[in-house]
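Morning, I've got a small favour to ask if you have a moment. I've dropped the whole record in just underneath, so have a look.
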Amino acid sequence: MSEIFSLMFWPLMACLLLPGILVYLGLHIVRRGVIFVDLALAQVATLGTCVCLFLNHEPDDPHNYFWSLGFTLAGALVFTFTRPSRRTHVPQEALIGIVYVVAAAAGILLLSKSPHGKEELQRTLVGDLLIVDAGQVGKTFVLYLVIAAVHVIFRRRLISLSFAHRPEDASHQTWSGKGWDFLFYALFGLVVTSFVQVGGVLLTFSYLIVPAVCANFLARRLGPMLVVGWILATLAGIGGLYASYRLDVPTGAAIVCVLGVALAGSLVAARFLPAPGPESP
């Protein structure tokens, strides 16, 4: 029992402490209607890591984080200035998909020149929660607290941009609106970059979107949606870790599958629960 506890303790801490802000940001992303922006930014962050590995840095070299962060901030800038307006007929999701595909293809090309490219590609996709340690969890959690503090300080403006306006509204098209959008995407990119280093692209996307979608099925106001999302993310993390240990399967992939089961359960529950109250931020 002590061996199991020592093996799973820090992965469990990662699943309990880190997804909280992911769920909150996921609610923003779902409401903005740019569902795959997190997947695209996660892949762009991974491309930064691939470039760093191509330049012969080691996988655990601190340079990896800064390359990933630089690429992610560049992606945040692109998504800020491609937000749809009344004058364009191209949905932003199309551009987001293109960024994702190109970043993924470029990463594969770069890793094809690495002697351990296959292993590194798998690690970027599904991560390896079992190797996270106290330092990695602690640094990421402190960063998330700082980002959460910024969201609390500017909550009215950031929540208004995601929940109270349509993407094509004029308030998004001013330089002030774009500045707030860039702040949102830049902070979002910091979260994505950090969590990709811990859990990989697939787990990052799943923690951001699946609890948020489940919460939207079961609630309408932001507060209840946060509570539902946090509970589901926590239970899925614990359940995925347990399934990973019992079945001897990859941890990240197990959590993703448990989140998929949670989504199916939310769909069923939404059929039988009373209709949620009026929508409100």
Q: What stands out?
A: Residues 167-172 have pLDDT under 50 and may be disordered. Residues 175-218 form the longest helix (44 residues). The two ends are 45 Å apart (CA to CA).
